[in-house]
Amino acid sequence: MEHKDLEMIIVGAGLSGLVTAWRCLDVNPGLSALLIDSADHIAGDHTWSFNETDIAPDLRDWLKPFIAYSWDSYDVAFPKRKRTLGIRYCTGNSDSLRACVLPHIKSGRLTTRLSEAVTKISPKSVTLEGGETLSAPIVIDARGFKPPADKVLGYQKFVGQTIRTAQPHGLTRPVIMDATVDQLGGYRFVYCLPFTDHEILVEDTYYTDGADLSENEVTTRLADYINDKGWGDHTLIRKEKGVLPITLAARYPKDRTAQIDLEEPTVIGIRGGYYHAITGYSLPEAVKSADLIAGLIRDAAGDYSKEPHAEMAQHKLDHLNEERFARFLNRMLFKASDPEKRYKILERFYGLPKPLIERFYAGRISKADKIRILAGKPPVPIMNALKVMSEAKFLAKHLPESDTAV
Ligand SMILES: Cc1cc2nc3c(=O)[nH]c(=O)nc-3n(C[C@H](O)[C@H](O)[C@H](O)COP(=O)(O)OP(=O)(O)OC[C@H]3O[C@@H](n4cnc5c(N)ncnc54)[C@H](O)[C@@H]3O)c2cc1C
Predict the structure, then answer these.
(1) What are 60-89's pLDDT values in tens digits?
(2) At what angle do helices 324-331 and 391-398 cross, to 10 degrees?
(3) Is 133 found in the same domain as 92?
(4) Which residue's C-alpha comes closest to atom 35 of ligand 1?
(5) pTM surpassing 0.85?
(6) Of 1, 54, 172, 173, which is most buried, counting CB atoms within 10 Å of its CB?
(7) Is there a single domain that holds both residue 227 and residue 337?
(8) What pLDDT, in 10s, does the model give residues 173-188?
């Protein structure tokens, strides 16, 4: 069934799907869109944080309504380095995201179909669990994470609790990484976001190879950290957990002129590989894709014969090329370093100049930045670093061609 006037279907009303709907409808006043999600409400129950400098300057004002909390600076702490970085840190949440798209829902330009799972997506149509097929010139797959067949991954895993402390907790800015804690066989740190004087999100995070999250164990160490900080007298407000992909190597056509498979639907968000290779965070990439799609729709002016589908396929290749250096750093972190000493790579990184750190997280590092990151005494044995340098060799070893699904 073709909906009259319906130009866009987005499957997945999570972060990337909603940011895309919001941006596309803001930029294109004549556009109408349909959001489909298997959950019974949009936006889930999350918080999403990012450095303000991760977002292109011309989109920062637009994104402001999404930001529920922000701080002028944040701290990092390692055994041999403590530093306050004057980088603005921002957090949005499910409530603020819902509020951003609500005007479009109220106006009728954005319709939703909830509690409906989509089983099949093609570039111009989707099939619902009950068999119904819906078509539109633009179809976007934003269904969240699915392990990719063409990547070697490590994982960032965490358990977090938002608590209300009986006494003021005393933190005035976020602690993005407190890596002074016991490392316990992988890179481990605690992350703290002080929302108010009494309310704080505390997350115990660790980087290890497999996707298994030892939830009970991590919850126990989180409780120990909370007690050690003197926040033992508290009420629990909210819990969250996450297993985020960290890309060590990716197989894809390196040639920008390579044939693009136009039979594949446009996939965005974490499922499309749009996350920071080192942190697994995807908000900045979600904003970038949303803006790109919104601009392509505007420029297509109703002729969707090629755009935005082909452009988005190219955007994916560009993203994979841009994160090549980050993947090498991940291979050093996961495969070239003694697990107990992985923190040293980050300890050293956080000694670099602030503008470089900003560019690194924003995915805008230059050749000079890369040299600067690698210069000096390496934090891992040099022979180990050399062994993981070639992505092609690493892929041949960890993801033989025959294992790559089509
Ligand atoms: C606990 C946690 C904290 C995180 N914190 C941050 C952070 O601070 N900053 C940051 O940048 N990133 C963060 N991330 C990583 C990443 O940004 C999030 O996972 C983000 O929500 C991914 O966005 P997405 O749109 O790709 O997927 P999701 O937000 O997961 O949305 C996917 C949507 O698709 C729907 N869906 C799935 N299958 C179907 C189907 N078959 N049919 C219909 N609908 C379907 C789901 O119900 C869901 O609503 C965090 C992740 C987690 C898990």
Answers:
(1) 999 999 999 999 999 999 999 999 999 999
(2) 60
(3) yes
(4) 12
(5) yes
(6) 54
(7) no
(8) 999 999 999 998 889 9
